[in-house]
Amino acid sequence: MGLVTFLLLLPGVLLGLCAEESLLPGRHLLLQSGLEEIVLGGRHRAWPLDLEDLPSLESGFLRVLQEPQLDPECKELLNTFVDSSLRLAGCLIQSARPVTLCQNCYHQFGEVMQQFNNIENTTKSNRCAQSLLMSDRLQMVALVNKFFNDTWIKANCANCLNQKNEGLSASTVTFLALYNESMACFKQNLQEGNLLPSNYSEVCEKCNGTYKNLSFHYSEIQKNEQQEESGEQFHLCIDIEDAMNITQRLWSTTFNCSVPCTDTVPVIAVSLFIFFLPLVFYLSTFLHSKQKKRILILGKRIHSNASFANIQDKSN
């Protein structure tokens, strides 16, 4: 089941947790003939019964067959959990696109976790935890809480919040401010009638500074958080990742802008050096072998001349 589908069905599921329905459908009872007996408020009555006995018969069935009602304290805990879960589910759906769930829903998420902890911590004083969390195989309250917790972890929202999870971290606040500044610059320079690709150069020129500041801060967040994680794989929260992806697509794909690279000259120099390195190697090898061959030939000539001179001396 997908995230959106689950969130759409979640309000109905949560409301069903508090619904009180009769186990019998009103007065549509099929009475069988015979001498069967049933307990009705401590009295024994035999079949068949008159129609005037139907009200007492129905109430007796309900008292015998209905599950025991929750204690008032447990009912209040359940209703509070349902209300906070509905608020969180609505916030997650509304913040799905663009993704802003970490910055918009951290307060609602904290409420749900707190209400679930309140249910878990009532085990010693009453049976609320057993009734609400362990009374059936489905365990709907625990299942809903697990869904919210898994979604929060998958979105890495904790990496956008402060240590107490009571607000956004300073780096996240700075990033969002730079992001809003960049988007405002894009909109300001994309006035009506100035939407042709040939006019995007104005956006690239005027918004270059804000975009570079945003990219630099994004890189700094990744670097700092990676060091704090002691080399383990680290992911920024989904809000920051989605915002940066949107900005990069607009800058590089839609506006076709490019940020001048300050390391262009060193990169070109190193590339040329690597490219010409094989040529230099082969050229030096060739020259060295040619020089060695010349020395060898010269040495042979000197040796031959010396031998010829010795022969002439002996002949004389």
TrEMBL record:
InterPro entries cross-referenced by the UniProt entry: Osteopetrosis-assoc_TM_1
Keyword Translocase in annotation: no
Residue spans crossing the bilayer: 265-287
Superkingdom to which the source organism belongs = Eukaryota
Q: Which UniProt keywords apply?
A: Membrane, Signal, Transmembrane, Transmembrane helix
Gene Ontology CC: cytosol
According to the record, the signal peptide region is 1-19
Q: What Pfam families does UniProt report for this protein, alphabetically?
A: OSTMP1
Is-annotated flag, keyword Membrane? yes
Q: Which PANTHER family match?
A: OSTEOPETROSIS ASSOCIATED TRANSMEMBRANE PROTEIN 1, OSTEOPETROSIS-ASSOCIATED TRANSMEMBRANE PROTEIN 1
- The protein in question is named Osteopetrosis-associated transmembrane protein 1
Q: From which source organism is this entry?
A: Crotalus adamanteus
Instruction: Give the classification, highest ranks.
Output: Eukaryota, Metazoa, Chordata, Craniata, Vertebrata
